Predict the structure.
Amino acid sequence: MEWLIRLAESAIQASPNYALVWGLYKGLKTVLAPFKPLYNVWIQEKEKDLKLKEEAHRIQNNKLALLQFAADLAQNVKGDFPEAVSNHCKNILAIAQFTQKFLDDKEDYTKEDIETEWIERFYNEAQYVSDEKMQELWGRLMKEKIYRPSKVNKRLLSIIKDMDASELDYIGNNMKYFVSGCVPATLAQNIPEFNSDILRLAAFGLVLPLQVENSISFEQDPPDCTYTLEAKGYTFSFSPTGDIKVLSYDCYMLTPEGEVLYNLVQDKMDEQTATQYTDFFNSISRNSFRIEAKKV
């Protein structure tokens, strides 16, 4: 199937993002298995060229290159593979389409390298994702990787690869309780449906299993300053009005992987939870802060 090799070669050579697309191609070895002899010859030739393509390791001006290659491949190999393999291509195409939908040309993206190993791992796992809701999550994950590569690690891929849509709903429903990456332990105890799930979230690798101290301090700030905590759908602002300048409380914190997933899920804090937070902060501040919850 010389046309497939020409397709792959053209897609890669046309991209200034040469190394990233090359990494994607290697990550699709399973899809290309029927053409392994031709593939191996092509691999050997291109690996020589890659040593001279240092600048091609950058995302730079072609951040869609690896996604477009996946889409081109998926669209052009349907009829020649067994059904199961063709479905893998369709899954990758669907995820690529979600990513393209979420990308914002106005948003700055990093010029950090995206590791070839990460790309291979992503596509090796993504080809099996057939549920539309999970495909959307994987699309958002790739978008996040394009903009902030260092934030999305291989451990997060391991966390979500076996996750199904019902577990994603469960996690999203619990993520809405976090404010600036943590939820106060005392408040968690007063929300039974959440408190009972701390250990399960920790088992996913999304929450640290032990409580840590968090604090809001105005000791070095001018009297009229305001401190803000952010949640999905709400902000909480703190302004000192009394003698207390430090507000401390124990909390459960998101792991680095939990913080990324928090930004990917769409569930937002509801008014009842926002009120619970306001009441909690008022109770521990002893009227030394003016606390305002604002819906955003």
User: Anything to note?
Assistant: The CA atoms of residues 46 and 52 lie 10 Å apart.
